[in-house]
Amino acid sequence: MQERLKELQEEAIQKIEQSASLKELNDIRVAYLGKKGPITEVLRGMGKLSAEERPVMGALVNEVREAIAVKIEAKQKALEEAAVLEKLASESIDVTLPGSPVKVGNHHPLTRIIEEIEDLFIGMGYQVAEGPEVEQDYYNFEALNLPKGHPARDMQDSFYITEEILLRTHTSPVQARTMEKHQGKGPIKIICPGKVYRRDNDDATHSHQFMQIEGLVVGENIRMSDLKGTLEVFAKKMFGDDREIRLRPSFFPFTEPSVEMDISCKICGGHGCSVCKKTGWIEILGAGMVHPNVLEMAGYDSKKYTGFAFGMGPERIAMLKYGVDDIRHFYTNDVRFLKQFSKHE
Amino acid sequence: MFVSYKWLQDYIDLTGVTATELAEKITKSGIEVEGVEILNDGIKGVVVGHVLEREQHPNADKLSKCLVDVGEEQPVQIICGAPNVAKGQKVAVATVGAVLPGNFKIKRAKLRGEESNGMICSLTELGMEGKVVPKEYSEGIFVFPAEAEVGVDALALLNRDDEVLELSLTPNRADCLSMLGVAYEVAAILGREVKLPETDLQSSTEKAADYVKIVVDAKEDNPLYVAKIIKNVEIAPSPLWMQTRLMSAGIRPHNNVVDITNYILLEYGQPLHAFDYDRLGSKEILVRRANDGEKFVTLDDTERTLTSEHLVITNGTVPVALAGVMGGANSEVTPDTTTVLLESAYFIGGTVRKASKDHGLRSEASARFEKGVDPNRVRVAGERAAYLMAKYANGEVLEGAAEADTLSVEPAVVSITLEKINRVLGTDLGMKDVKEIFDRLQFTVIVEQGTITVTAPTRRGDIKIEEDLLEEVARLYGYDNIPKTLPIGSSTPGRLSEYQKKRRFVRQYLEGVGLYQAVTYSLTSEEKATQFALEKRETIRLAMPMSEERSILRLSIMPQLLEVLKYNSARQNDSLGVYETGAVFLANGEDLLPVEKEHLAGAITGLWHSHSWQGEKKAVDFFVVKGILEGMFAKLGLAEGVQYVQAKVEGMHPGRTAEIILNGEKIGFVGQVHPSVQKELDLKDTYVFELSLKAVLEADAPVLQYEAIPRFPSITRDIALVVNKETVSGTLKEIILSSGAPLLKEVQVFDLYEGDRMEEGKKSIAFSLKYVDPERTLTDEEVTKVHDRVLEALKEQAGAVLRG
């Protein structure tokens, strides 16, 4: 009997080792350890044994059963692992295929520039002021020291609707309105972005509609040197720390003294190229100390208050910053153009 | 204003300052120099030649065979195509090896079998603009005066060895519309002296006043009129140096008398006019306003109809010139003229501007009057012109002048304190520094304690108030030398308004879901202005549009966005989403500003999602766009108050359009563009929305408040309802929500079936209902009770039955 058991154990182990699938393994389990299996058969035959032999035999049977069960379990684990590996192997993919596209649009380049400038000045304590695009002649011209018949009105031929109402030619009326609202009291620190309109034929460098951003600071001790310092902070943040600025005297009816600001040309590093017309400098904006007539008309005592103002064109800045060569691109909205401005900077 | 570097040296010593350096200095101290043109740049090897022989080319009708002495040992044969070439002329010859503009190299050549050793040049071939070339040479070669020396540099003789500074003048600096004005400016910059031109001459014993009487009726338009008389002039070409200076400044030479008036215009900034005295037909000049409808032929042979707003110079009866703008054909100087009446006058800018604008005649003269001439130069400019006419037209200048003078010339006197200068500029200048600046400007200065009082010369009409003096100090002290500071004093909080913040959010949100931001024009055509308008109003039209296409202010953004889609679609981008935020303009009556309402519009066409290799493709539909809007409203905390109501909107698909209602107010629409419109624009199915952004951003949203997370499980019941086709899910949802409250927390549509297996006119909609009690675990019985109530309500209010 003992021998029979040993034989069975060896036979089972051999079969277990040879088994190739979980099903086969289960068949083996049933065959050897099941109720109808040969080992149970052996147990049944134990009745014939003596009382001394019985416990010895019982222990042996258990030993054999245990050995077979352990073997089956080990084999089962191995088979299962192999099955998982096989499944994973069959699931492999080409990771170089393109991902599912996520739809994302982006800011128009002009909005991008405007928000950048807004944020820069908000950081310096400015608020963003807005006003109507259709304006009264008074706010667009007269309150800005441009009385009717003033020759400088020629500089900005305008779209009139009636004799007294026109599409604003600059965002300066927002300044006039803001000053009026403050009723002769300071301080004011605002930046005014918006659309403006002039009678120009649309071509590569002109557009009948374009954007402007103007800034205004009014207070009791505002100096020309403050304007210069402010503009330098702006220019360096906007165009890079390596840029130099220079102020040139100029003329605007609403400021006196008036200046224009140039920044050093990045393309040629100031040596002169076609972009800067061989001067090494690129004109960026106009500025000046608020004209006393403008302050007085808005209700400020020009003996007590001074101020500075500046204005620039986001189109021009975008053209310089990104190398855009035709202003019409901003208003055609060709997606091949728009999507070039998606990079977060 | 074009300023010749060589000519400027007549008035100021420029030793040690090159043209480029000068340009830089002028720019930095106030007047932008746009460029410096080197006139003979890239040209060499052009000499004066003498045409010894000229005969017909044997093989070509239009060519001449010339033998030309170019100052070398042997004369050379040159073939010339100019019609005016002739024996005996002194001409400009580009010799073999010469280089002409455009890097055109002159080589020995054979033309129709005849050897040619160079080229006889016209002025345009030497780089001059056609419009300044004297008329007689405009079709051919230029001919030098006979005394020109053979073999010398022809470009030097033509004053092309010069550089021209192009000044870009702002309206306040009209003083620099003259060589003398520029000289004063340069003198202030360099700290040098100005040399004034020669005017002294021997006058005849006859008096100008005996020849003509000046009467000015319109004294306000013309406070000063001076006439000089020059007798016995010989009309001829002006000297070559004068012609070349005029040409460099952009003016075409005519004859000595006319050229001299133009030369003085450039030298003094004072426009002059020369009349043929004998052709005036009277001994009187009467300056008056024209009569309405009065006719007058200007010297460009155009008949002009005048109005009483125009000022005319007359001979007492008929006009002989449109004051300050253009002379008349009836009194123009001709080759036969012998006596010249020379007008030097002060006309008021506004009057001249009106006439030049009305007649489209903008000239060098009118531009100067418009900006204001120096009242103190009127007489001296006339004197100088007379001097030149004596010298270069052999004229006899009569003594004195006939005048009408009511002009009072008061130079501006302005005071400023040193303290103010330093306070406003942020500088630390001393009185000595400031005084020196005004001295350099040749302004008269009186210093009294801390105050400086300046009398500005009349040529600087722009100096009127303290701030003008500040500017003079700042620019001549140099902006480079002003320190850089930041404003001090009470601080202001820098921030965006709530509205501005939310608007930025909306833009970012829409871009985040895949739309590109567009910016389009506010001006559009009559037809497009009102399409898709949320509110119907009168259109607002420009008084003088530049084109019909851009003549009306828009009432909606949508037509422009559809144009954007059309443009892109025609360029192989037929799947695209764009949006725009911007004003639309609602008329408010003739004399009032329109209401400007900020709108938000979006448009999506073609495929919304496409991932080809995985076989995914989804065209945009109503629910894509609606989903975008729902997301936006949810983010703004407004979802609760928004309803979509089936609607008809012109230009939109009648069955696929909804009005958007926010808190009971209609704020916009969403839907599919009408298929016929899509077809017209050649677009695939296109879904759009337009709404009042103002209404959205100004709507009150509930304050964000934490709500306890349910601690007890929810119970979900799904129901499939059979309803009439016309019944909309929104109605059913509302019934469910109101009848299921308060335990019912969520309702969602999860299926819609309208297929064949349904009874005619019916459809099936399935909802998932979620019941929760925040306080305890719900029992089945409790839910069933409420659920039955819901089913009952559905049946009663919408005739909805459970699908069997």
Automatic annotation (TrEMBL), chain A:
<keyword id="KW-0436">Ligase</keyword>
<feature type="binding site">
    <location>
        <position position="256"/>
    </location>
    <ligand>
        <name>Mg(2+)</name>
    </ligand>
</feature>
<dbReference type="GO" id="GO:0004826">
    <property type="term" value="F:phenylalanine-tRNA ligase activity"/>
</dbReference>
<keyword id="KW-0648">Protein biosynthesis</keyword>
<dbReference type="InterPro" id="IPR004188">
    <property type="entry name" value="Phe-tRNA_ligase_II_N"/>
</dbReference>
<dbReference type="InterPro" id="IPR002319">
    <property type="entry name" value="Phenylalanyl-tRNA_Synthase"/>
</dbReference>
<dbReference type="InterPro" id="IPR045864">
    <property type="entry name" value="aa-tRNA-synth_II/BPL/LPL"/>
</dbReference>
<comment type="similarity">
    <text>Belongs to the class-II aminoacyl-tRNA synthetase family. Phe-tRNA synthetase alpha subunit type 1 subfamily.</text>
</comment>
<keyword id="KW-0479">Metal-binding</keyword>
<dbReference type="Pfam" id="PF01409">
    <property type="entry name" value="tRNA-synt_2d"/>
</dbReference>
<protein>
    <recommendedName>
        <fullName>Phenylalanine--tRNA ligase alpha subunit</fullName>
        <ecNumber>6.1.1.20</ecNumber>
    </recommendedName>
</protein>
<dbReference type="InterPro" id="IPR022911">
    <property type="entry name" value="Phe_tRNA_ligase_alpha1_bac"/>
</dbReference>
<dbReference type="InterPro" id="IPR004529">
    <property type="entry name" value="Phe-tRNA-synth_IIc_asu"/>
</dbReference>
<dbReference type="Pfam" id="PF02912">
    <property type="entry name" value="Phe_tRNA-synt_N"/>
</dbReference>
<keyword id="KW-0067">ATP-binding</keyword>
<dbReference type="InterPro" id="IPR010978">
    <property type="entry name" value="tRNA-bd_arm"/>
</dbReference>
<feature type="domain" description="Aminoacyl-transfer RNA synthetases class-II family profile">
    <location>
        <begin position="111"/>
        <end position="340"/>
    </location>
</feature>
<keyword id="KW-0460">Magnesium</keyword>
<keyword id="KW-0547">Nucleotide-binding</keyword>
<comment type="subunit">
    <text>Tetramer of two alpha and two beta subunits.</text>
</comment>
<keyword id="KW-0030">Aminoacyl-tRNA synthetase</keyword>
<dbReference type="InterPro" id="IPR006195">
    <property type="entry name" value="aa-tRNA-synth_II"/>
</dbReference>
UniProtKB/TrEMBL annotation, chain B:
<dbReference type="Pfam" id="PF01588">
    <property type="entry name" value="tRNA_bind"/>
</dbReference>
<dbReference type="InterPro" id="IPR036690">
    <property type="entry name" value="Fdx_antiC-bd_sf"/>
</dbReference>
<feature type="domain" description="TRNA-binding">
    <location>
        <begin position="40"/>
        <end position="155"/>
    </location>
</feature>
<dbReference type="GO" id="GO:0004826">
    <property type="term" value="F:phenylalanine-tRNA ligase activity"/>
</dbReference>
<dbReference type="Pfam" id="PF03147">
    <property type="entry name" value="FDX-ACB"/>
</dbReference>
<dbReference type="InterPro" id="IPR020825">
    <property type="entry name" value="Phe-tRNA_synthase-like_B3/B4"/>
</dbReference>
<comment type="subunit">
    <text>Tetramer of two alpha and two beta subunits.</text>
</comment>
<feature type="domain" description="B5">
    <location>
        <begin position="409"/>
        <end position="484"/>
    </location>
</feature>
<keyword id="KW-0067">ATP-binding</keyword>
<dbReference type="InterPro" id="IPR005121">
    <property type="entry name" value="Fdx_antiC-bd"/>
</dbReference>
<feature type="binding site">
    <location>
        <position position="472"/>
    </location>
    <ligand>
        <name>Mg(2+)</name>
    </ligand>
</feature>
<keyword id="KW-0648">Protein biosynthesis</keyword>
<dbReference type="InterPro" id="IPR009061">
    <property type="entry name" value="DNA-bd_dom_put_sf"/>
</dbReference>
<keyword id="KW-0963">Cytoplasm</keyword>
<dbReference type="Pfam" id="PF03483">
    <property type="entry name" value="B3_4"/>
</dbReference>
<keyword id="KW-0547">Nucleotide-binding</keyword>
<feature type="binding site">
    <location>
        <position position="468"/>
    </location>
    <ligand>
        <name>Mg(2+)</name>
    </ligand>
</feature>
<feature type="domain" description="FDX-ACB">
    <location>
        <begin position="710"/>
        <end position="803"/>
    </location>
</feature>
<keyword id="KW-0030">Aminoacyl-tRNA synthetase</keyword>
<dbReference type="Pfam" id="PF17759">
    <property type="entry name" value="tRNA_synthFbeta"/>
</dbReference>
<keyword id="KW-0694">RNA-binding</keyword>
<comment type="similarity">
    <text>Belongs to the phenylalanyl-tRNA synthetase beta subunit family. Type 1 subfamily.</text>
</comment>
